[in-house]
Amino acid sequence: MRLTRRRALASLACLALAPTARAAKPPSPAQAPSFYRTKIGEIEITAASDGTGTRKLEGFVRNVPDAEVKAALAEAFLRTDVFSTNYNPILINTSGKLLLIDSGNGDLGASDNGLLLESLAAAGVRPQDIDAVVFSHFHPDHINGARHQNGTFLFPNAEIMVPEVEWAFWMNDDHAAQAPAGLQATFHNVRRVFGPIVRDVTRYAWNREVAPGVLALGAPGHTPGHTVFAITSGDQRFMMMSDITNNTSVFVRHPDWSMILDQDGEQARQTRHRMLDLAASERMQCAFYHAPFPATGYIARDGASYQFVPATWAPRL
Q: Where are the domains positioned within the chain?
């Protein structure tokens, strides 16, 4: 149809009479609270995001030049100016009990983390619903979410469970007095979190269950008492790897790299290989505290190295 001047003017008149469209809603930078559920036999596991964080890149990996680390980050499509990480506590529903493995950064974290309570609320869980908080080790990003800066303890009905090896190291006055400057703040923070409840803390041993179907396994090196958890129900197994790797895109691909946060780099390297090899050999689903949310998947061998293969999301368990 030929567009004449008369038709053009008529069209403009109709547009003028049409209802005014509403302006688009301004974009929001915020994400929704994040949780993700999976099922291992009769045990329900929920990853509850505590958010993300960054660290200074220079010197973060002790035994590899920074340029090589940047190349690995670029290969994984990650930022190369900082070292990025995620924080992913998990909630285990077993035998009618709710166990929280680690408590995140709390209100001592940065603006992009300390989100655990929001994620738990989105999953329908309140702090008072938690029956036990089980700590894998005592680094601040794992324990600070249990106690706010003002001293308030966040899980009033929970049994507090800690690795006995970890407790023996960080609560020892001689170790604290002899610690290098870089560890002094961690010793102080451990006492800040646990000092007021020291008589109520349960210390658990390795190779023992902390709850039905949840076995604590020693994984030292990252810290003296660093612990991972094997979760078993029926013929299905799941491994909570804790801090076996700080970032799966880098340290699963490069298991011999030693990060500055590992107290015993060589022991951590051996432990990393042992746990990754176990997960690959048994094709076991696993979760990592520091992996892109929802932080669960599988480990596949790749020559002398490994790959992290994310689990497929399912809308229903």
A: 32-310
Q: What is the pLDDT of residues 219-273, one digit of tens each?
A: 999 999 999 999 999 999 999 999 999 889 899 999 999 999 999 999 999 999 9
DSSP label of 244: S
Degrees (nearest 5) of the Cα angle 192, 156, 130?
A: 110
Who contacts 243 (Cβ-Cβ below 8 Å, separation ≥6)?
136, 137, 139, 142, 222, 226, 261, 288, 289, 290
Q: Distance from CA of residue 284 to its chain's centroid? A: 18
Q: Which residues pair with 211 in a beta bridge?
A: 214
Distances in whole angstroms, Cα of residue 40 to Cα of each of 7, 216, 230, 237:
67, 17, 11, 7
Asked if residue 219 lies in contact with residue 242, where contact means CB atoms within 8 angstroms, the answer is yes
pLDDT of residue 16: 53
Closest CA to 298 of 255, 232, 239, 218: 239
Instruction: Report, as ranges of residue numbers, the positions in the chain whose pLDDT lies below 70.
Output: 1-23
Radius of gyration in angstroms for the set of CA atoms belonging to the chain, rounded to a whole number: 24
d(CA 227, CA 260): 19
Residue pair 62/72 in contact (Cβ under 8 Å)? The answer is no
Predicted confidence at residue 317, as pLDDT, reads 80
Beta pairing class for 90-94 and 159-163: unpaired
In 164-272, at which residue ranges do the beta strands (DSSP E only) sit? 201-204, 208-211, 214-218, 227-233, 236-240
* pTM, to two decimals: 0.90
Per the structure block, which two tokens stand in for 57? 């890149």
Record: fold of 32-310: Metallo-beta-lactamase; Chain A (3.60.15)
Three-state DSSP class for 19? coil
Q: What is the pLDDT, as a whole number, of residue 164?
A: 98
